[in-house]
Amino acid sequence: MEGVDENNRIVTKPSIFRGNEMGNRRALRDIRNLMGAPPYPCAVSKRPLSEKNGIDDQKPTFAGRRPMTRRFAASLASRSQHSHQEASETSEEYIIGRHKKPNLSTLNPCSSDTSLAIEVDDYTAANDLTLPMVEEIEEMGNCDLKEVEMEDLVEEPIPDIDGFDSSNPLAAVDYVEEIYSFYKRTEVAGCAHLDYMSNQFDINEKMRAILIDWLIEVHYKFELMDETLFLTVNIIDRFLSRQTVIRKKLQLVGVTAMLLACKYEEVSVPVVEDLILISDRAYTRHEVLEMESLMVNTLQFNMSVPTPYVFMRRFLKAAQSDRQLELLSFFIIELCLVEYQMLKYRPSLLAAAAIYTAQCSLKGFKLWTRISELHTSYSEEQLLECSRLMVDFHRKAGTGKLTGVHRKYSTFKFGCAAKSEAALFLFDSGI
Questions:
Q1: CB-side exposure of 61: number of CA atoms within 13 Å?
Q2: What are the boundaries of the region Disordered (predicted)?
Q3: What is the C-alpha end-to-end distance of the chain, expressed in Å?
Q4: Which one, of 315, 307, 360, 367, lies nearest residue 334 by Cα?
Q5: What domains lie within the chain, and their CATH numbers?
Q6: What's phi and psi for 34, nearest 5 deg?
Q7: What distance in Å separates the CA atoms of residue 328 and residue 394, rounded to the nearest whole number?
């Protein structure tokens, strides 16, 4: 090692630089030959240290840091042509199959082969191949949306008829559907036998009609609840289907049935003396109480039966009825209470048919909404037979001897519903 002269300030250099100091420097004419050289004349890309030392480790380097030799230029041209051919084959395969996506890893300029250079036009053309697929996906999505919209139009949501009564505890909104489902299952068990009059030897259908028509007037005079009237008729029919009675005891059966119904439904129950008085003292108190004991034992104390009134309240709510429709519906169904032949229909069917007939009478055309059909479980075709009988009762209500229902609904209190026109067109119309 050479010494250091403090006066001349000579610093000893390493042996790697002491030889030919200019031997490894590049000529100025070679500076611009560097591929990717910066545009500024002062920024000169230098070779890696391994090249300076004369070491060629054959490792790939970025094109911008390697001199453009003939061998390197030929290598770049060969690789670019090969990648362009692969991209073309992939594009053709994708266009034909429409199922395979192009391998973008071969088109990615940031792939593992960092010395690979592709043209911008090739890369853009390769990406353009995905546009038809995107449009098809959007069209499929639009088709799906259209199908969903069509399904929504076909399947309309069922309106909630109990929404307005959600705050009313007496409406039992939480389990009202279960209640009426139970009523529908048990209504047959609460009906009388269809031909029980054939077992009666001293009474007939006409006597029954006279009794019911008279009890409707008594019910109206005592201002009793509607539930009481329907339960009274139900008790009479069920008792007569199991027990034979003589003619002069038939009125006693009717009076006692009303007494039982009042005890079950009314808050203020008429006393026995009032019922004896209304029957023109034809019976004594002892006879009324004795008949009461016989009837409850015959019916096995079963008073909780679904009558047509129970279904009337629910079905009128589903029909979104007003006061006029409600009064006309009850007028029609009370006409059916007098008729013995209507016992062949279930209480729920009677209620639905009465509402359907009233709607046809008021509107002048057939009307049975989808909501009513869902809540009643009866179609318009199922109601037509019963409805035609009701129209006939409506037409003849003011004639004959049994006009108690017609007089009741001809008053202003009941909206003069009996004066409405009957839906006679139902006789000629077909479903």
A1: 18
A2: 44-63
A3: 123
A4: 307
A5: 24-38+46-53+62-67 (no CATH), 70-132 (no CATH), 188-215+225-305 (1.10.472.10), 307-431 (1.10.472.10)
A6: -70, 125
A7: 10
**For residue 394, which of 339, 347, 344 has the smallest C-alpha distance?**
339
Question: Could you tell me if 230 and 190 are in contact, meaning their C-beta atoms sit under 8 angstroms apart?
Answer: no
Report whether 211 contacts 254 (CB < 8 A). Answer: yes
The residue assigned the tokens 């639905």 is: 352
The rounded distance, in Å, linking the Cα atoms of 91 and 93 is 5
- Quick one: tokens of 133? 């697929």
Length of the chain: 431
Give the max Cα distance, the chain.
158
